[in-house]
Amino acid sequence: MRLDLMVMTVHPDDAELGAGGTIAKYVTEGKKVGIIDLTRGELGTRGTAITRAQEASAAAEILGVELRENLELRDGFFLNEEISQLAIIRIIRKYRPEVIITNAWDDRHPDHGRASKLVNDAVFLSGLRRVETELDGVTQEAFRPRLQLQLIQDKYIQPHVILDISDYWDIKEKSILAYKTQFNASSDDDGPQTYISNPDFMEYTRGRARELGRNIQVKYGEGFTARKLLGVQDLFDLI
């Protein structure tokens, strides 16, 4: 299977929070979209790796993606080194996405920026034919996605592109709330409370989408950054 869009982020729920509307939009339009989680999120204060996997599966079903896989790198302690890079290269060459979206290049959570750099380096190396990889005993061909973008997560970063997700906000929100151990904890929840479990966090998330949308005169938007200049073939496609 070849993907049109691959969202490759470090923790289960990063894809939904940062690009859930984008994923829903392109799935609805018939694009092949997949999510690759780098870690199981096993260091999270609430829930477990098992519950996170169950929630990630439920969120993937809500979004309607073609696939969701987990590379099971070590949450909090993965490094930008050969073993991790090759794991990512194999999955990129396997699914050959046209566009790849990954974590913010700088953020409150140190895993986000580190994962962004790791994926960025692996994307480049994936296009080098002398970087040799195999999958199921078969030599893979070199491949590099046409476009790589980064999420805007907790820390506000000026976006290079904003996508209108107004028609897909409800799907995005449902996919986020599939992570029942992580978000919208009730007042009688006796588990540890975190920055994201407070119901106010979802209001913040909605506010960010409204803020981004306002910049392009729509209700809800998702913003992304690029590490290179973006070109267009038709100025009339811009809004």
TrEMBL record:
InterPro entries cross-referenced by the UniProt entry: Bacillithiol_biosynth_BshB1, GlcNAc_PI_deacetylase-related, LmbE-like_dom_sf
- What Gene3D superfamilies does its record include? LmbE-like
Record-linked Pfam families = PIG-L
Q: Which SUPFAM superfamilies match?
A: LmbE-like
**NCBIfam families reported for this sequence:** thiol_BshB1
What this protein is called in its record is Bacillithiol biosynthesis deacetylase BshB1
Q: What is the lineage of its organism?
A: Bacteria, Pseudomonadati, Bacteroidota, Sphingobacteriia, Sphingobacteriales
